[in-house]
Amino acid sequence: MVRTILVDDALLQYLHTVANDNIYAVGLILGQSCLSKDYVVHFAKTPPYQSQDDKKSQKTPNKPNSLEDFNEGWLADHARQATRMLPGGMYVLGIFVVSPEDVFSPFNTKIKSLLHSVYSTLNDNEYLFGSPSTDKLIVHQSSKTQRYSSRSYDVLSRNVQNVELKTSPKKWISIRCDFEINELRFLSKNQSDWPLEKHMKAILNDISNVLDSATFLYDGEYKDKDSTLENVSKKKGKSRSDKNVAESGDASKPWQVSVLQNTSSSAALFSEDSVSDCEGNFRLIGKVVSNLWMQPKMTVSEISTAVKEDILRSLFSRLELHWDSLIEGENSEDISSVHEPPRRVLIPLPDSEIALSDYLFPGEGSQETKVSLEELLDIKIKGRLNINDVEGQADIEDYYKGASVSDNEEISLKITTYSNYSMYVIGLIVSLVVLVTAVLFKFFM
Amino acid sequence: MKPKINISESVVKRLKNSSNSCCGKLYGIATQSEIVVLAICVDQNDVEFKNCLPAGIDFCGIFNIADEASHYDPEIISNAVFIGGVVGKNDLKVHIEESGKYISTLFNVVLEQHINNTYFYIRTKGHIPFQSEFTKDALKETFETLHKTIPSELVFGIFKSNIFFSANEINGVEDNISLKELCEDSFNINEDFNKKKVTNVKPTVIEFNILRKLTTNKSSELIKDHAPIGILDKRKLIKSNVFIHFLFIALLGPTKVVNTTLELDSLAVVKNDIKIKNLYNIMLESIKRLLNIHQAKLLSFLKNSTSTKSLVHQVYHYYPDECQHFITVLYAKDQSESDLKASRLLLHKHLGLQTNSPCFRRSNQYMFEKNLNGPLINPHEGLKPTLNEGVVALVKGKYEYFHYCQNKMDDNGWGCAYRSLQTLASWFKLQGYVNREVPTFSEIQQCLVDIKDKPSSFVGSRQWIGSTEVNFVLNSLLGIENKILYVSSGEDMPSKGPELVSHFQNHGSPVMIGGGVLAHTILGVDYNQQTGEIKFLILDPHYTGDEDLHTIQSKGWCGWKNATFWDKNSYYNMCLPLVPREV
């Protein structure tokens, strides 16, 4: 069966515009694959290459004059950053190329090298879930003839195949999941010197293990893993209208996913039971809100995997953004501190029900989102941008103050007592007594 | 109207047979219309006892068994039952509180079969991670937090089904049906259910898995509604003064924390017509009771952390025959049976049980799952009683039925005494007296070679053994002393009636009997002193079929036999294993 890329007119129009404005251009194909069909949700032209020096000197980047002018690392980094913005189940499926010459006969080696670079960067981190498939799409739009053609290229087998490109309307099933995190790690003596990044990665591993053995419910119901929500949604529609017309007449209401941890699986257990010395603790608390859009033909087990990937991808992305933003020393500082990674906000794609994610640091707002939309997705928004702040910002004050009233009351009480001067004196006296006794003991025994 | 009083037969028996004066608390299931007294605790002041009973059984009154009929002023507790009696009088007076006084009332004795036909047990299994600072206050606080968080977090899934119970809803099945209907509808939930319908003596247990809900639909109060943030709390103290820092470490010690996983495996008892939407709360209650026991164990571990190395405690459920209800106990992983002797004795005392045979060793634990491939356990249960009207004395506790052709070994014609020996050994294993598996044929043969009873060619042979060899092997491999009884003819077997009655009453272990070329196991006798008539409950090791209880019982492979069962032309030796008197 020939792979088919499904696009809509607006996306074709976009390629056309890019080819009109540029002689040479590359960009990303974003979307979802299901049963040898690729459902494209967005094309995003890669911004012109700027080296660090160029950025500093605010030099306008050069227009590329041949395919050779495209930088592999730059494109791969674009793919990585775009992947962070994608909901689970969606990936960078491949790249589009605009050039005057034919690139498929023979298959252009530069394009191969660009794809290899994208593939290896996306697979660099296990929690980005960047590239599940090795078969990448290439859509070529001729800037001379305005014709398009497409192929697939397997970065492992190096196999090139023909791919059809069709326009077709797409239907999506929308999925919602509010995943709560409340992970506490006691730090042993050697762990307390770990950089923040290491603590966070340990928690990511824990969450990943838990999700691997979890049970997923859809609107509270257990679904067979090979079934699709398309089939059941009809039944559901009926029972919903039977039961409660007023409440849920809206068929497009997302499926609410519940994640149940099997408490007897090994992921739920500590690897060892211990009483140990502790030099502090690290807690990650808050919720990750996931919104996914899946093809109706997707099976329940594929959807569950996508939900899992979305939670981890989103959590990993924001944590990575956070520790990258820390200046030297902050990552391994010695004092108690509250870390607030950027939070997820959803931005609807123009002319689509699908929304992509952006991550906002405290204090950032729609202005910053506009910038990243333009840079990473080539979407220019005029006027007000609606961002959906699904998770909400923490009131950090709660936690600074809360440190003394939280469940670790004991701990903070001790911390405060240490700063109490009279305790120093008592401690000093007691220690002297101990010292003297020890000396006497040593000499007279 | 005052509720009807029903008292479990086992409670009545223990109170009537009490040889000392004692007083304590009554536990049972109380509703508007009736109070069913199911359990006793012979200790008026114990407050923890309730936690080892299934949820649903609560304090419902007090009892006092006095040395002689004297005046006793029971504490007035509203709606409580008060049972009074006199040692050796075999008579109980039951009262119920009414407007500040105990009023004498009638009561019914209820049998185990009735209880287990009316009530079902809910077993809830899972684990819960436990992290806390290792101080008394912090542990208590962490448990308090657990009690608060579990109602919103836990979801119970019926074992091997797609039915899930959460705090507000039940998914996978209509929520206005009763538990009984649920069990009848979903054949998969309890495969035995329909088969068991006829005589349901043993408790019906429905198993649930514990799951933790990691997602919300609404914001819960305990987790603040916001994107994830990380809070790093480091206890690097006063950096400027290293001396002071070390001084405090030296004085107070570094902060200790505990990381462990609590095993959850709790029981609740409910009327089988309960609406399933009411089950969630009772399951939660059963978990809370278990958490209370865990808390007590961790606190005592904290107090003397040297006596036991393991902070991990394992859950054991017991269903002692003399109690006819479940008792849940936690034992530390590394505690040996002898370490636990004192706590077992206390349990016997609390429950008013004899202290001459163990009920609460690990191997006494109740077997929920039947081992489908292994030998049957106690195949004599459910047999019709004889009409001999004598004293019935039976094997106590559990044994496994070993017979010909098990574990793919064809011992037809020569292995019967080996199999009978294995049945005897299984009894000692299951009762917790010995800590070894049932010996195999080659282990038995090797043992007889080792003690120089047989030549070395005996190992691997198909030579049969008799009661003398059974005696040797039990003695050498299990350290069991045996009494040997001899009759010169099968006709004389009835004369051993009194001795056998006494053996089963005092020791309760199965007896191996060999005569001619046949070996059997005697599981009990029914001896009528007036008529001298005797019936023997025989377990026949010559059975070659599958582990099919129906065939075994109906074809008499396990059943009551007349004295004529024994061949008058052959002599018989019986090997009566003697049992240590301990708990």
TrEMBL record, chain A:
The chain crosses the membrane at residues 421-444. Belongs to the ODR-4 family. It comes from the Eukaryota. Keywords: Membrane, Transmembrane, Transmembrane helix. This is Protein odr-4 homolog. It is found in: Membrane. Residues 49-70 are annotated as: Disordered. GO terms for biological process: intracellular protein localization. GO terms for cellular component: endomembrane system; membrane. The keyword Transmembrane helix applies. Pfam families: ODR4-like (PF14778). Its main location: membrane.
Automatic annotation (TrEMBL), chain B:
Keywords: Hydrolase, Protease, Thiol protease, Ubl conjugation pathway. InterPro entries: Papain-like_cys_pep_sf, UFSP1/2_DUB_cat, UFSP2-like_2nd, UFSP2_MPN_N. Residues 1-113 form the UFSP2 N-terminal MPN-like domain. This is Probable Ufm1-specific protease 2. One of its GO terms (biological process) is proteolysis. Residues 256-369 form the UFSP2 second domain. One of its GO terms (molecular function) is deUFMylase activity.
